[in-house]
User: Which sequence fits this backbone?
């Protein structure tokens, strides 16, 4: 029987409250629109807390991605307070307060875990209902995933409220699940991936009971909705932690059930780390590129560039390698098509220069991206270093080498047809 001696204690009777003078969060660090929404809720007698990642990041001295607000006002009450407010979400009903064209402040009513008695009679309604049972701030803290994600900043007193031991874990730089990890991972297996993601993003250590919980619950992640997994996977790339997180996930038996049977290898994880590095340098995150990177190693084994193959065959093999992933995650055809083109591009680039159709390859819109992908592979494995340099030079137009010979097949097609000799005339 596994022991969970490190699991956080059950709900403490009273929260730890850190007054303004004893913490570093200042209102100057919170954007004006979020403050406006909080003040208005407060003026109308409601609680208004900054919740989740915003509090965590401010306490760590990091710049939060966004700010979320928790309140005891119901979504309808929030809507009544703001002219520019829209209620969104079926699974998790939220109020969006809009400012101008782009700015949205998210306001969520405090919730608690639904009990059997809370749910409506018709089981078909349970799904939409169970995420929307309103509760107290304390209950709201306990339904969250990790202790460091359950801290509140109260706009009334400017104090920090901690019901779950999150401040202690922030100080110790460790990630702990609220409650029993096996129970919480069974409830929502996506939390396992989030645990690895936050550890990698924040440089935190994974608490031993969380690690054991992942080992035990890993297969359950196959039951999560593919659309959610796809979104969390993209988050890993946006936060530039895909390489380390997927490597950890593989080591803990989480990767295969996560990606519908995907088995990474050392080269793939090293390649993804290079991709993370490029994103940190300002390159955009593009799903076709991610797919091609995830499957490049398998593709190069299936279709080695040392072996000459017709383009149609290369495209077929690239499609075959990508098909299970694209099917499982319902990837749009335009995206899988581009991923296939990228793999074809890498194959052709890896065949070397002076090849048939090189001129067309150099002007193809996907080729610069294929060169980038080949460069990531090269940095990860040491293969094709010179070739990457040569292709980059050729693409930049600084290549002094003569153009590659034109495609002989095309030449033959262009040759004028010989006229049939007329009767009595000698053939030319
Ligand atoms: P960031 O936005 O920087 O990625 P975050 O902590 O704000 O980090 P979100 O995904 O935006 O993460 O979620 C907001 C908050 O909602 C989290 O901090 C956490 O408290 C709660 N939360 C999100 N997903 C879950 C989940 N699967 N189970 C329980 N609580 C969750
Ligand atoms: Mg967030």
Assistant:
């Amino acid at each position: 029987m596994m022991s969970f001696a490190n699991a956080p204690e059950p709900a403490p009777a009273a929260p730890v409250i850190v007054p303004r003078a004893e913490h570093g969060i200042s209102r100057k660090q919170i954007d004006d629109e979020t403050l406006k929404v909080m003040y208005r809720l407060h003026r109308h007698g409601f609680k208004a807390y900054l919740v989740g990642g915003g509090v965590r990041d401010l306490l760590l001295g990091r710049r939060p991605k966004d700010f979320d607000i928790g309140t005891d006002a119901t979504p309808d009450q929030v809507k009544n307070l703001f002219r520019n407010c829209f209620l969104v979400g079926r699974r998790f009903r939220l109020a969006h307060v809009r400012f101008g064209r782009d700015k949205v402040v998210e306001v969520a009513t405090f919730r608690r875990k639904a009990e059997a008695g809370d749910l409506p009679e018709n089981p078909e309604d349970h799904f939409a209902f169970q995420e929307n049972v309103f509760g107290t701030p304390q209950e709201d803290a306990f339904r969250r995933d990790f202790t460091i994600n359950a801290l509140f900043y109260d706009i009334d007193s400017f104090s920090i409220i901690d019901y779950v031991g999150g401040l202690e874990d922030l100080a110790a730089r460790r990630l702990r699940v609220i409650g029993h990890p096996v129970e919480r991972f069974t409830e929502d297996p996506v939390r396992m991936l989030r645990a690895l993601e936050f550890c990698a993003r924040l440089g935190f250590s994974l608490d031993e009971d969380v690690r054991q919980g992942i080992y035990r619950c890993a297969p359950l992640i196959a039951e999560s909705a593919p659309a959610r997994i796809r979104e969390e996977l993209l988050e890993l790339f946006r936060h530039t932690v895909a390489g380390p997180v997927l490597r950890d996930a593989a080591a803990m038996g989480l990767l295969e059930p996560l990606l519908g049977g995907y088995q990474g290898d050392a080269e793939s994880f090293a390649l993804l780390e290079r991709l993370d590095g490029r994103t940190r340098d300002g390159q955009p995150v593009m799903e076709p590129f991610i797919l091609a990177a995830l499957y490049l190693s398998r593709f190069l084994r299936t279709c080695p560039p040392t072996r000459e193959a017709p383009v149609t065959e290369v495209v077929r093999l690239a499609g075959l390698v990508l098909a299970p992933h694209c099917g499982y995650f319902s990837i749009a055809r335009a995206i899988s098509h581009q991923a296939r083109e990228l793999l074809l591009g890498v194959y052709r680039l890896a065949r070397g220069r002076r090849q048939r159709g090189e001129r067309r390859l150099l002007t193809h819109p996907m080729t610069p991206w294929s060169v980038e992908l080949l460069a990531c592979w090269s940095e990860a494995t040491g293969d094709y270093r010179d070739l990457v340099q040569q292709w980059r030079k050729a693409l930049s137009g600084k290549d002094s080498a003569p153009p590659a010979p034109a495609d002989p097949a095309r030449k033959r097609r262009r040759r004028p047809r010989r006229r049939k000799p007329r009767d009595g005339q000698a053939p030319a």
Q: What stands out?
A: Confidence is low (pLDDT under 50) at residues 1-5, 400-412, 424-428. Residues 52-53, 65, 68, 144-145, 149-150, 188, 190-191 surround adenosine-5'-triphosphate (ligand 1) (CB under 6 Å). The radius of gyration is 28 Å.
